[in-house]
Amino acid sequence: MTSEIIWIQLFNGITLGVIYALMGMGLTLIWSIADLPDFSQGGIYIISAYSAYFAIILLNFSYFFAIPVAIITGMAISVTFERLLYTRLRASPNAALLCAIALFFLLENIAVYLWTPKAKIMPSPTKDMILYFAGIPVSFQRILIIIVGVVLFIVINVFVKKTKIGKAIMATAQDREAAALMGINLEKVYITTWALGGALTAIAAALISPLYAVYPGMGTLPLLKGLVVVILGGMGSFIGALVAGLILGLIETFGSVYISVAYQHGFAFIILLLTLVIRPQGLFGRR
Question: I need a surface site. Which of 6, 72, 84, 97 has the fewest CB within 10 A?
Answer without folding.
Answer: 84
